Amino acid sequence: AQIAAGAQAVQLFDSWAGSLSPDEYARFALPATRAVLDGIADLDVPTILFGVGTGELLAQMAGAGSDVVGVDWRVPLDAARGRVGMQHAVQGNLDPARCLAPWAVVEDAVHEVLRRADDGTGTGHIFNLGHGVLPETDPAILAAVVELVHRETARG
How far apart are CA 60 and CA 88, in angstroms? Predict the structure, then answer.
């Protein structure tokens, strides 16, 4: 329905995937995830698969059929790329709690994410938080993060 309404990309967000062992994920979650992604494959929109606490599941998640694999803040993006493989873009992974810190800390954290994301493969990176926005986050900090990412990643 979201795609029919004009969504240009969709994300399958699996909040509990990280609570499973790799064997449990393969048995219980991966088949359902593949079915969902296969079910929308003909709708011609990019797909993102994201799970919380899924560092040890990233390779399996990469085999589920999405275009992009989201990475929470617990795994550095360069390590995550090694687990996901070079055929997928990655999304993430600024720690949402960092956005509660003074701007200098946030700025350093954004630069660290961008540095680790730039691996030269050309597979792509979507800058994002490594999970949701915490309720006490100042919206001005988020606006500054967006501005910084745009400035640092602008193609000339």
Answer: 12
Provide Rg for the chain, Cα atoms: 16
Torsion of CA 21, 41, 7, 57, to 10 degrees: 10
Residue-wise pLDDT tens digits, 65-87: 999 999 999 999 999 999 998 88
Q: Find the helix packing angle between 103-117 and 139-153, rounded to 10°.
A: 40
pTM: 0.92
Q: CA–CA separation, 144 vs 46, rounded Å? A: 27
Q: What is the DSSP string of 35-72?
A: HHHHHHGGG---EEEEETT-GGGHHHHHTTS-SEEE--
pLDDT tens digits for range 30-70: 999 999 999 999 999 999 999 999 999 999 999 999 999 99
